[in-house]
Amino acid sequence: MSTLSKPKHIGRNISRIRELRDMKQEALAQAMGTNQQAISVLENSETIDDAKLEEVAKALGVTAEGIKNFSEEAVLNIISSHDDSTLNSTINIQPTFNPLDKVVELYEEKEKLYERLIQAEKDKVEYLEKIVKGK
């Protein structure tokens, strides 16, 4: 008895990878310089030529081999193998500065620029008055 396995559906793999990357067909189409209908046809294709697969892989930010060998089970295993503390520590971002200090700093910088602008205008008026008096 033959144990031939069903070949992987490359278009379906492309679709799942695109979805996992939170990308719409329109965004992938734009990245590839084509339209949404072409992406739909591509995702419904069981096989894709290597040149087109390389182009899709580049637009998705993966390798062609990654698309060919994509397995949802592997993705789920990777996600479930991380405990919650690992996921939380990668997402938790602590700024190294106080945002209010930055606001105050920007306000003070704006005031200094405004004062320089006023001084430049005063200098210009003074210069023009000298020219007018000189005539």
From TrEMBL:
Signal peptide: none annotated. Keywords: Coiled coil. PROSITE patterns: HTH_CROC1 (PS50943). It holds the Pfam family HTH_3. The keyword Transmembrane does not apply. The keyword Secreted does not apply. Residues 14-67 form the HTH cro/C1-type domain. Residues 100-130 form a coiled coil. SUPFAM superfamilies: lambda repressor-like DNA-binding domains (SSF47413). This is XRE family transcriptional regulator.
